[in-house]
Amino acid sequence: MYSCVVVPSVTVAASERLAALARTGATGNNLQIVLPLYIPNGIAPDATSADEVQNVGGEGQDAPFNKLLSAVLDWAIAAIDAERWLEAQGH
After folding, report:
1. Exposed (0-12), middle (13-18) or buried (19+): which is 66, by Cβ within 10 Å?
2. Torsion angle in degrees (nearest 10) through CA of 26, 27, 28, 29
3. Which of 37, 53, 34, 54 is nearest to 45 (CA)?
4. Where are the domains of the chain?
5. Residue 53 and which of 18, 59, 63, 76 are 20 to 30 A apart at CA?
6. In 3-state terms, what secondary structure has residue 34?
7. Residue 61 belongs to what H/E stretch?
């Protein structure tokens, strides 16, 4: 079983987001909550140099982050291929 961690963070909201809120009549402040997802990868936790980071640890390709990244890449490639197919069909 893999564990993933979601850590709430507070950051300054982008000015575009604040402008969009203002157009709707909503009020808000200049802070927003961000929920970054931390997923284990194959990089050793004590890696401090580029060479150490490139030396993939024991999990290697089976690390959850690597699987997620591979799936996103596959999805992106399929989306590009689908777009090209639609263009070829005249859509």
Report:
1. middle
2. 140
3. 53
4. 1-38, 39-91
5. 76
6. strand
7. none
The two three-digit tokens of residue 72, written as one number = 């996103």
In this structure, is the dihedral angle defined by the CA atoms of residues 39, 45, 50 and 56, taken in order, positive or negative? negative
Q: What are the backbone angles phi and psi of residue 66, rounded to the nearest 5°?
A: -65, -40
Beta bridge partner(s), residue 10: 33
Rounded Cα distance between 36 and 67, Å, is: 18
Angstrom distance (rounded) from CA 77 to CA 33: 31
Hey, how many other C-beta atoms are within 10 angstroms of the C-beta on 21?
14
Q: What is the pLDDT along the chain (91 residues), one digit of tens a residue?
A: 455 666 777 777 777 777 777 777 776 667 777 777 777 777 777 888 888 877 766 666 677 777 888 888 888 888 887 777 778 877 6
Task: Using alpha carbons only, give the angle 47, 50, 53 rounded to the nearest 5 degrees.
Answer: 45
